[in-house]
Amino acid sequence: MPGGHCHFLGGAVANDTEARKLIDANAAAGVDVIKVMASGGQITPGGAEMWESQFSVDQLSMIVSHAATHGLPVAAHAHGADAIEACVEAGVATIEHCEWLVGRRQIDLRDEIAKRMAARGIAVCSTSSPQDRGVR
Question: Helix 111-120 crosses helix 81-90 at what angle (to 10 degrees)?
Protein backbone atom coordinates (compact mmCIF):
# COMPACT_ATOMS: atom_id res chain seq x y z
CA MET A 1 0.00 0.00 0.00
CA PRO A 2 1.26 3.54 -0.62
CA GLY A 3 2.91 4.59 2.63
CA GLY A 4 2.46 1.05 3.97
CA HIS A 5 5.03 -1.32 5.39
CA CYS A 6 8.19 -1.38 3.22
CA HIS A 7 6.71 0.95 0.58
CA PHE A 8 10.18 2.47 0.22
CA LEU A 9 11.43 -0.78 -1.33
CA GLY A 10 9.18 -0.20 -4.35
CA GLY A 11 6.11 -2.11 -5.38
CA ALA A 12 3.44 -0.12 -3.56
CA VAL A 13 0.02 -0.43 -5.20
CA ALA A 14 -3.08 1.66 -4.59
CA ASN A 15 -5.70 -0.57 -6.22
CA ASP A 16 -6.37 -3.93 -7.88
CA THR A 17 -5.37 -2.72 -11.35
CA GLU A 18 -1.98 -1.59 -10.10
CA ALA A 19 -1.54 -4.86 -8.21
CA ARG A 20 -2.26 -6.92 -11.33
CA LYS A 21 0.15 -4.84 -13.41
CA LEU A 22 2.89 -5.26 -10.80
CA ILE A 23 2.33 -9.02 -10.62
CA ASP A 24 2.47 -9.19 -14.43
CA ALA A 25 5.71 -7.18 -14.49
CA ASN A 26 7.31 -9.32 -11.81
CA ALA A 27 6.25 -12.51 -13.56
CA ALA A 28 7.74 -11.21 -16.83
CA ALA A 29 10.98 -10.49 -14.96
CA GLY A 30 11.16 -14.15 -13.90
CA VAL A 31 10.36 -14.04 -10.19
CA ASP A 32 9.64 -17.26 -8.31
CA VAL A 33 7.16 -15.87 -5.79
CA ILE A 34 4.97 -12.83 -5.18
CA LYS A 35 5.26 -11.32 -1.70
CA VAL A 36 2.61 -9.13 -0.15
CA MET A 37 2.84 -7.10 3.05
CA ALA A 38 -0.48 -8.20 4.54
CA SER A 39 0.22 -6.45 7.84
CA GLY A 40 2.38 -3.61 9.05
CA GLY A 41 5.85 -3.94 10.47
CA GLN A 42 8.43 -2.18 12.56
CA ILE A 43 10.80 -0.62 10.05
CA THR A 44 8.39 1.77 8.32
CA PRO A 45 7.89 5.06 10.13
CA GLY A 46 4.26 6.14 9.87
CA GLY A 47 3.16 2.82 8.38
CA ALA A 48 0.64 0.37 9.77
CA GLU A 49 1.35 -1.19 13.16
CA MET A 50 2.56 -4.80 13.10
CA TRP A 51 -0.90 -6.12 14.01
CA GLU A 52 -2.81 -3.93 11.54
CA SER A 53 -3.96 -5.39 8.23
CA GLN A 54 -3.01 -3.62 5.02
CA PHE A 55 -5.19 -5.61 2.60
CA SER A 56 -8.70 -7.04 2.76
CA VAL A 57 -9.52 -10.70 2.14
CA ASP A 58 -10.89 -9.71 -1.29
CA GLN A 59 -7.69 -7.87 -2.21
CA LEU A 60 -5.50 -10.75 -1.03
CA SER A 61 -7.69 -13.24 -2.91
CA MET A 62 -7.27 -11.23 -6.11
CA ILE A 63 -3.49 -11.14 -5.61
CA VAL A 64 -3.38 -14.92 -5.03
CA SER A 65 -5.60 -15.69 -8.02
CA HIS A 66 -3.75 -13.33 -10.37
CA ALA A 67 -0.35 -14.65 -9.28
CA ALA A 68 -1.67 -18.17 -9.96
CA THR A 69 -2.34 -17.23 -13.59
CA HIS A 70 1.45 -16.97 -13.85
CA GLY A 71 2.03 -20.15 -11.84
CA LEU A 72 3.36 -18.13 -8.91
CA PRO A 73 2.71 -18.73 -5.20
CA VAL A 74 2.13 -15.85 -2.80
CA ALA A 75 4.14 -15.33 0.38
CA ALA A 76 2.51 -13.02 2.91
CA HIS A 77 4.25 -10.93 5.55
CA ALA A 78 1.73 -11.10 8.40
CA HIS A 79 2.33 -10.39 12.08
CA GLY A 80 -1.31 -9.64 12.93
CA ALA A 81 -3.96 -12.25 13.71
CA ASP A 82 -6.54 -10.58 11.44
CA ALA A 83 -4.03 -10.42 8.58
CA ILE A 84 -3.10 -14.07 9.12
CA GLU A 85 -6.75 -15.08 9.00
CA ALA A 86 -7.29 -13.05 5.81
CA CYS A 87 -4.23 -14.68 4.23
CA VAL A 88 -5.52 -18.16 5.03
CA GLU A 89 -8.91 -17.31 3.54
CA ALA A 90 -7.19 -15.92 0.43
CA GLY A 91 -5.08 -19.04 -0.05
CA VAL A 92 -1.50 -17.79 0.27
CA ALA A 93 1.26 -20.40 0.10
CA THR A 94 3.28 -19.22 3.09
CA ILE A 95 2.94 -16.78 5.97
CA GLU A 96 6.07 -15.02 7.13
CA HIS A 97 6.36 -14.13 10.84
CA CYS A 98 2.87 -15.39 11.85
CA GLU A 99 2.94 -13.88 15.33
CA TRP A 100 -0.85 -13.64 15.88
CA LEU A 101 -0.61 -10.08 17.23
CA VAL A 102 -3.75 -8.09 18.06
CA GLY A 103 -1.96 -5.21 19.77
CA ARG A 104 1.37 -4.34 21.26
CA ARG A 105 2.44 -7.36 23.33
CA GLN A 106 -0.98 -8.98 22.80
CA ILE A 107 -1.40 -12.31 21.03
CA ASP A 108 -4.56 -14.11 19.90
CA LEU A 109 -3.61 -17.58 18.69
CA ARG A 110 -6.60 -18.71 16.67
CA ASP A 111 -6.57 -22.49 16.82
CA GLU A 112 -9.22 -22.98 14.12
CA ILE A 113 -7.26 -20.80 11.70
CA ALA A 114 -4.05 -22.69 12.53
CA LYS A 115 -5.85 -25.97 11.83
CA ARG A 116 -7.04 -24.62 8.46
CA MET A 117 -3.47 -23.57 7.67
CA ALA A 118 -2.24 -27.09 8.39
CA ALA A 119 -5.05 -28.71 6.41
CA ARG A 120 -4.35 -26.49 3.39
CA GLY A 121 -0.59 -26.97 3.58
CA ILE A 122 0.13 -23.29 4.19
CA ALA A 123 3.74 -23.02 5.33
CA VAL A 124 4.82 -20.77 8.19
CA CYS A 125 8.19 -19.12 8.46
CA SER A 126 8.41 -17.66 11.95
CA THR A 127 11.31 -15.38 11.14
CA SER A 128 11.85 -12.58 13.60
CA SER A 129 14.38 -9.85 14.05
CA PRO A 130 15.94 -8.73 17.31
CA GLN A 131 13.46 -5.83 17.18
CA ASP A 132 10.54 -8.28 17.18
CA ARG A 133 11.61 -9.79 20.47
CA GLY A 134 10.82 -6.57 22.28
CA VAL A 135 7.26 -6.42 20.93
CA ARG A 136 5.90 -9.71 22.12
Answer: 30
What lies within 8 Å, CB to CB, of 38 at 6+ separation is: 53, 54, 55, 60, 76, 77, 78, 80, 83, 84, 86, 87, 92
For the purposes of burial, counting CB atoms within 10 Å of the CB of 10, is it exposed (0-12), middle (13-18) or buried (19 or more)?
Answer: exposed
Residue 105's SS3 state is coil
Q: How confident is the model at residue 70 (pLDDT cuts 50, 70, 90)?
A: very high
Mean pLDDT, to the nearest integer, of 113-131? 87
pLDDT at 114: 97
The Cα diameter of the chain in Å comes to: 41
Number of H helices, E strands in the chain: 5, 5
Q: Count the Cβ atoms, other than its own, within 10 Å of residue 6.
A: 17
49: helix, strand or coil: coil
Dist CA 130 CA 19 (whole Å): 31
